[in-house]
Write a structure and sequence with these properties.
Layout: E1 30-39, E2 44-52, H1 58-67, H2 69-73, H3 77-87, E3 90-102, E4 105-115, E5 119-129, E6 134-135, H4 147-170, E7 192-195, E8 198-202, E9 219-223, H5 224-227
Antiparallel strand pairs: 1-2, 3-4, 4-5, 5-6, 7-8, 8-9
Length: 234
């Protein structure tokens, strides 16, 4: 199991940018973009993250393997380029954002644009322990036995969003089943993004494309002060 504790550092007047860290962690890593032109004439580009470090560093190699285009998209880069140039379909672009890069944690979101039956956007989230290159799950950061309690708080937030969407889209119709059966569970904790002042949790309702306008808000934010009681401390 990955490191199961984090050291909190709370300073007077607020929480510093590096509000969480892993035991044995190292400082921020260097990330730069690599640009791949799908078709130079039209300017469609994949902007992909590359983590830099010492040659042969297994942690850096592991992070770059996870962030490689084939790992993210499920297809070789050559196939993506060929498909786009031949039929102007498939993946049409990509970008990334470094959400957090402090205290031994690197959190990156890679966004892909895809053109199939209709245009769509996908978000691929990565959270690494930079000392090992291993992916971090939320359970690696939480105090033992606190998962259900945290999920319960987030479910309360989710149900409020569902009630708001039901009122807006169904005019309060109690017979409407569009929003029935959705709840935030412990399993949903592992879709998250760490930022400098808290954590975003992402609940996927999975509404079909034609009904996405009626989908409740599934992004739930807990500020660092509210997350701290759930975090393992050593």
């Amino acid at each position: 199991m990955l490191a199961a504790a984090i050291v909190l550092s709370v300073m007077a007047g607020g929480v510093p940018p590096s509000w969480i860290s892993l035991p044995g962690s190292r400082g921020p890593v260097v990330i730069t973009p690599v640009l791949v032109e799908l078709d130079g004439a039209e300017g469609s580009v994949l902007s992909l993250p590359v983590v830099h470090g010492e040659a042969g560093d297994p942690a850096v190699d592991a992070m770059n393997e996870a962030l490689s285009w084939e790992s993210v998209s499920g297809e070789p880069l050559e196939e993506t380029i060929s498909t786009y140039r031949e039929i102007r379909r498939g993946f049409t672009g990509a970008s990334f954002a470094v959400d957090f890069n402090e205290g031994g944690i690197l959190d990156i979101t890679v966004t892909t644009d895809f053109y199939g039956a209709y245009p769509s956007t996908g978000e691929h989230r990565f959270c690494f322990d930079t000392s090992t290159g291993a992916r971090l799950a939320m359970r690696d950061l939480l105090d033992d036995g606190r998962e259900a309690e945290l999920a319960g708080i987030l479910d309360g937030m989710l149900q409020e969003n569902i009630a708001t969407a039901r009122e807006t889209c169904c005019e309060g119709d109690p017979e409407s089943g569009l929003y029935d059966g959705y709840a935030f569970s412990v399993e949903d904790l592992d879709s998250f993004t760490i930022v400098e002042n808290g954590v975003w949790f992402h609940y996927d309702f999975g509404f079909p494309h034609v009904a996405q306008a009626a989908e409740p808000e599934g992004d739930l934010f807990l500020p660092s002060q509210e997350m701290e009681p759930f975090l393992a401390v050593r």
